[in-house]
Amino acid sequence: MSTFAKPENALKRAEELINVGQKQDALQALHDLITSKRYRAWQKTLEKIMFKYVELCVDMRRGRFAKDGLIQYRIVCQQVNVNSLEEVIKHFMHLSTEKAEQARSQAQALEEALDVDDLEADKRPEDLMLSYVSGEKGKDRSDRELVTPWFKFLWETYRTVLEILRNNSKLEALYAMTAHRAFQFCKQYKRTTEFRRLCEIIRNHLANLNKYRDQRDRPDLSTPESLQLYLDTRFEQLKMATELKLWQEAFRSVEDIHGLMCMVKKTPKASLMVVYYAKLTEIFWISSSHLYHACAWLKLFSLQKSFNKNLSQKDLQMIASSVVLATLAVIPYDQTHGASHLELENEKERNLRLANLIGFNLDPKHENREVISRSSLLSDLVTKGVMSCATQEVKDLYHLLEDEFLPLDLASNIQPLLAKISKLGGKLASASSIPEVQLSQYLPALEKLATLRLLQQVSRVYQTMKIESLSQMIPFFDFSVMEKISVDAVKNNFIAMKIDHVKGIVTFGHLGLESDGLRDHLTHFTESLNKARGMIYPPVQKASKLGEILPVLGEVVEKEHKRLLARKSIIEKRKEEQERHLLEMEREEESRRLKLQKITEEAEQKRLAAEYEQRKNQRIRREIEEREREEAQALLEEAEKRGKSKGKKKSILEGEKVTKQTLMERALNEQLRERQEMEKKLQKLAKTMDYLERAKREEAAPLIEAAFQRRLVEEKMLHEREQQQEIQMSRQRHDGDLAEKNRLARMLDNKLIFQERVIIRRQAEFDRRRLEREERINQIIQARRQERDAMRKKIFFVRTEEERLKKLREEEEARKREEAERQKKEEAERQAKLDEIFEKQKQRERELEEKERLRREELLGRSTDRPSRLSEARPLETGTAPAAAAAAAASAPGKYVPRFRRERVDGGGQATPPEPDRWGSRSDDHPPQSSDRWRSDDRKPSYGNKGWPSSRGAPRDR
């Protein structure tokens, strides 16, 4: 360990070693100087040494040396000059960044050079294998060896500086600047792993700051400056995380911001909150948390509308449209239906955390938190004026999806609106924190919502529908995708439907009837009836020997059960006792092991402490001896120099042993003697100077008085001369002004004439313009009056036309009502007439039937009078007897002959032409047809006593 009397000597020694190429020795020499306890008082030379020290560390890529040196230098200048430490650290980071940029500029393939997953990891195994197998290294490998080490060193530099500056109230600004530069480094070179580690480092620093509250230079977060620096760092971290697509780290950054605000119990500014909610919208959209995404958009809309005075109407309209579409994109059912208790508890805790982040609630009590739901967001859209600011397409889409009931036309009405919405969006002019809004990202969620609404509305109208028809009604997805959506909806109890692929149909049900209790109600009813039947009519059991055993068997079973329970309890107690014994043994063994380990560690610590103390004492002793030797040598050299300068001989013999004590005594005596001589000389010199100064003043006093009198005379003469010159110049100026006035007086009349002419011309111009303005105003008033009259006429015409059309409609409705009443009355009259005719015909038929009955009785009476004659003639004229009888009956006046008897007579060849019936039909080949009036009445024909139709509508032949 090299020691130097002054720090300048170490700096000179380091420069000499650097010039001869020994940078390692120079670095070690400076490191020994900086870490030495001898130089703990800050001076400007130490700052120069630190500049040279960090330059050597950067050139040689010695991050550990740089960290040790900066820590020691922080101890030195912490309380004296913190700005010096800040300058050294800035110089250190500047050199590291410059070296990394130089290495990057030298590399041709940057992407291959930076293809390393972890800058803190060692060389990968495949690289080692490749280096041993291949003889020559490729260009990419040379680039890797050139660029990667410098980027590792730059990353180590950032970590070192953050570790040195952490939790220091005097270096908060430098800490924030370093963190921002480290974020930019991760963003520029796409270092995701290092970004995660950087966020964790900053997070740990804040945790330690909150944990160790008794530190000396701990920052106070309650001050606005410190809080703003910490907030800026976290918001920069949030921005970089979203730009690097590290969404989990972005969410942790959001939690960090919220935790920081909970620590200080203070809400950030509106400008920062806008950035906060803008990033939350991206995070929740990526994580498919559409409910919290919509809530974040609503908060963002409220902030922009309240605090952004430069927000244009178009930008506000785009933001409001995003809020409405984000709310509509939320699934309209709860996805926790049927979840377990543990899942529900985890979901509840997660919802409370997210609600705190969105609402920025700094109160940790649960009862103060409001529950976020889709229905509450939809109500907030109206109450907070979001719907009034949204575009017309978005409003129409909202009403179709939430208010209208159009099961067949819903998809066809929504499709053009979605096509228009997909084209909306773009960059916002005045909302800097929201650079761009794209409404097309909500199309898949809106199509899914439209599919769910259509299925819900169709299930209310139809019970069964074909799969092809349903697929045509939903043009957004294929049937396979729609099937997945419907399965999820049925699972979460949103709709009730079943798909039968064999029959190709979809069956819809009712949610109330599709519950588990009603789905199997018949099965439960059957089981209950079977149990009741078994109790009313128990099955007949055959008498056996078991009947004798059964009463005793219950007691035996009970005793055996009790014995088994007792045995089980004994076994459980033994197991518990054994486990307790094992646990005690393990605990004793663990305590014995920990005690032995503690004794060993204490012994080892004592040994290490003793060795350390011994080494420390030896080092201190060596340093004291070395320091005494150096001081004795310096005193000896100084004494020799003083002896040579005074021309004295050496007072120290050559063979005499020189010690520090003797040298110090001699030096003190010499210094005392010299000090006494110097005091005598100074006293003599002071007396001489006193006499000399007094003599000089006595001689100079009359000279000064004479010079003062001469100066008064000269200044008086100068004043009189300047006064005369000023009077003369004033007279000359007055005379010149009078001459100029006389010269210009002759033009006064012309000037007045010109002035009057200009005034007249301007007055005329003013009158002309005033008249033109009045005429223009009159024309505008006349045009507006005409327009107002025309509008009034148009309104009067429209109202008159509406009243006329309304009157025509009322007259038409009255006419239709009268026509309907008239037709109804005519129909009633026609029906009454038909009923009367029907009654008359029935009466006539009853009379004819009575006559027929009397005739048959008369015929039967005659036949009994002539039985023998008929029996004799029957074998000969079997076929002609009925005909003769019919002919006889027909020839008898006033007798009724049935139609079938007359036809038989005609068939025998002796029948006369048939009489025309009462309906005028004379043809036997065609049955009589009823009249048109009777055909118009759709009444059934009446039947007689024999079951044949009456003559009113029955056929005349068989």
SS class: mainly alpha
Shape: flat
Profile the largest sheet: 3 strands, antiparallel
Number of helices: 32
Radius of gyration, in Å, reads: 60 Å
The percent of residues in helical segments reads over 70%
Q: Report, as a whole number of angstroms, the end-to-end distance.
A: 147 Å
- What is the average of the pLDDT values? 78
Task: Enumerate the strands of the largest sheet in spatial order, edge to edge or round the barrel.
Answer: 3-5-4
Subcellular location: Cytoplasm
Protein name: Eukaryotic translation initiation factor 3 subunit A
GO molecular function: mRNA binding; translation initiation factor activity
Family: Belongs to the eIF-3 subunit A family.
Summed up:
The chain is built from 32 helices and 5 strands.
Task: List strands and helices in order, with pairings.
Blueprint: H1 7-19, H2 23-35, H3 44-60, H4 63-77, H5 82-106, H6 110-113, H7 125-133, H8 139-165, H9 172-188, H10 192-211, H11 224-243, H12 247-264, H13 270-286, H14 290-307, H15 313-328, H16 341-359, H17 374-383, H18 386-389, H19 392-402, H20 410-423, E1 425-427, E2 436-438, H21 443-461, E3 464-466, H22 467-473, H23 479-491, E4 497-500, E5 505-508, H24 516-519, H25 521-536, H26 546-646, H27 660-744, H28 748-865, H29 867-873, H30 881-891, H31 899-907, H32 932-936
Antiparallel strand pairs: 1-2, 3-5, 4-5
Helix pairs in contact: 1-2, 1-3, 2-3, 3-4, 3-5, 4-5, 4-8, 5-8, 8-9, 9-10, 9-11, 11-12, 11-13, 12-13, 13-14, 14-15, 14-16, 15-17, 15-19, 19-20, 20-21, 21-23, 26-27, 30-31
